[in-house]
Design goal:
Layout: E1 2-10, H1 13-24, E2 27-31, E3 35-39, E4 44-49, E5 66-74, H2 77-86, E6 91-98, E7 102-108, E8 114-119, E9 126-127, H3 130-138, E10 146-153, H4 157-165, E11 170-176, E12 184-191, E13 194-201, E14 217-224, E15 244-249, E16 252-256, E17 262-265
Parallel strand pairs: 1-4, 5-8, 10-13, 14-17
Antiparallel strand pairs: 1-14, 2-3, 3-4, 5-10, 6-7, 7-8, 9-11, 11-12, 12-13, 15-16, 16-17
Domain VOC: 2-120
InterPro entries: Glyas_Bleomycin-R_OHBP_Dase, Glyas_Fos-R_dOase_dom, MMCE/EMCE_epimerase, VOC_core
Organism: Curtobacterium pusillum
């Protein structure tokens, strides 16, 4: 099951639609005062207006387990950054050359969701599934920003890999971070045309966060459709860690992985 949609809680639908349409070339599928659906090439973004949001406990510290950011592939990073600066969008990290031969930058959407732009094909340090890497690279340079991944920090990569294997995810590749003394590694789990980008920090203490479905920003990710794998489960117990039901969104049950990433398994 690939990532089918990303659910975001927003304060103002029109403001958020304008942001994603103008700065990330999103195509508006439908929009009302209460919700919107946006096409970001390989996934839909589903926006829901929240009038009285809870105070978010998310912090921009990758040592906090669970959701970290949403990533897009672009072919024109400098032009995108210039437009973001002109729009006075707050940045978390100005463009840098990163491990894997890519250029990246991080910034925030109007409701505090951390977004990343990635330019260039990642040159993975470790390849675990050549077919998945070839399919990744085969997508080529995008004509417009293409949804690429959701990132999360986890306590144990083996547990996370086992958990998402039941949804058809394969361990595709990895990137080392030799300059980071916290034992930082990135592992990419792949299904379909997007990834789960998984952070581990073997030499640093991580903090657990209780999932919030009623705060502004990222709410959950929906898995659906077909991907590179064949699993159809919902991340059961055993080695992969038991799923935990934490509520409902859009009339569907929201589960979490062992590190608190909220997700929905779309109904067939």
């Amino acid at each position: 099951m690939a990532i089918e949609s990303v659910l975001l809680n927003v304060r103002d639908i029109a403001r958020s639609v304008e942001f994603y349409e103008r700065l990330l070339d999103a195509t508006v599928v439908k929009s009302t005062d209460d919700s919107a659906e946006l096409d970001l090439v390989t996934a839909r973004f589903l926006l829901t207006r929240v009038d009285a949001p809870a105070d978010s406990t998310w912090v921009g510290d990758d040592l906090q387990r669970g959701f970290r950011h949403v990533g897009f592939k672009v072919s024109d990073l400098d032009d995108r950054v210039a437009a973001l600066h002109e729009a006075e969008v707050p940045f978390h990290l100005e463009p840098i050359h990163a491990e894997g031969g890519v250029r990246i930058t991080f910034f925030y959407d109007p409701d505090g969701t951390l977004l990343e732009l990635v330019e260039g094909p990642l040159q993975y340090h470790e390849v675990y599934d050549r077919e998945a890497v070839d399919q990744d690279w085969g997508l080529g340079e995008p004509d417009r920003p293409r949804f690429d991944h959701v990132a999360e920090t986890v306590a144990d990569i083996e547990t996370t890999t086992a958990h998402f294997s039941s949804l058809g995810y394969v361990r595709m590749a990895g990137i080392h971070q030799p300059s980071d003394d916290r034992g930082f590694e990135i592992t990419f789990l792949r299904s379909g045309d997007s990834s789960l980008e998984v952070f581990t920090y073997d030499k640093a203490e991580k903090q657990q966060r209780t999932p919030q479905l009623d705060a502004l920003g990222f709410a959950a990710v929906t898995f659906g459709g077909t991907g590179t794998g064949t699993g159809t489960g919902a991340g059961g117990g055993g080695r992969g860690g038991a799923t935990v039901a934490v509520g409902t969104l859009l009339g569907q049950d929201v589960l979490t992985d062992p590190d608190g990433l909220p997700y929905i398994v779309a109904r067939a």
